[in-house]
Amino acid sequence: MLDKDPDGSVGENIHRQIRNDIIFGRLLPGQKLRLEPMRQAYGISVATLREILSRLTAVGLVTAEGQKGFSVAPASECDLMEVSELRIMLEAKALKDSFAHGDLNWEANVVAAHYKLESVEAKVFAQKDDIPPDLREDWKRYDWQFHRALIQACPSKNLLDLHAIVFGKFLRYQLQTKTIRGEIAADEHRQLLAAAKARDTEAAIAILKQHIYGSAAHLAPAGTPSAED
Length: 229
Hints:
- The protein has 2 domains: about 10-70, Arc Repressor Mutant, subunit A (Orthogonal Bundle), CATH 1.10.10.10; about 75-220, GntR ligand-binding domain-like (Four Helix Bundle (Hemerythrin (Met), subunit A), Up-down Bundle).
- Helix content is about 70%, strand content about 5%.
- It is built from 9 helices and 3 strands.
- A 3-stranded antiparallel beta sheet has the order 1-3-2.
- Helix 5 packs antiparallel against helix 6 and helix 5 (about 105-125) runs antiparallel to helix 8.
- The protein is globular.
- This is Transcriptional regulator, GntR family.
């Protein structure tokens, strides 16, 4: 989802670029996506651009407004809560299945993904809330890769695909705030790693709920459910 793919087709690469521009906040919630300026900016035809925006509409990152064209999907606290619940539902199921099927290679990939995430987290925390955009993007890319590694042994491609869509929506909210949860989130990542090594599904799901609800509360304190709900 957030990984760079220099070997893909032009259309797929531009699709990935526009999607990431929405997720990382370079295209803002509610912003009009005017075809001619976008065609020039991304170097593609209007027909290809329309196809890409239609695909992004199908996954909820863009809204189509009939004759008015396309806009970046709006953001709201209600939507954040719904996305949080969906992420927990999908990721918890994928974690359970991944723990059941994961082999030594899977575990090694989880450890490696966490090592990369922990390394960039140290750089982020050193910056406190004044994080350069490139570092913030690297951080969230490694965050995605770690969570993806945890569930990668799940045998359901449909489940993994749905999770990627919902994770992207959740990440969009995370990148709308300049503040960070810092060491709390990093400690939850360490706990998830330990649970993965022990194949402790119950502990992993409990930590995951705490991790997602905690992040949602940081983004929108009012009306956020607790991890015990």
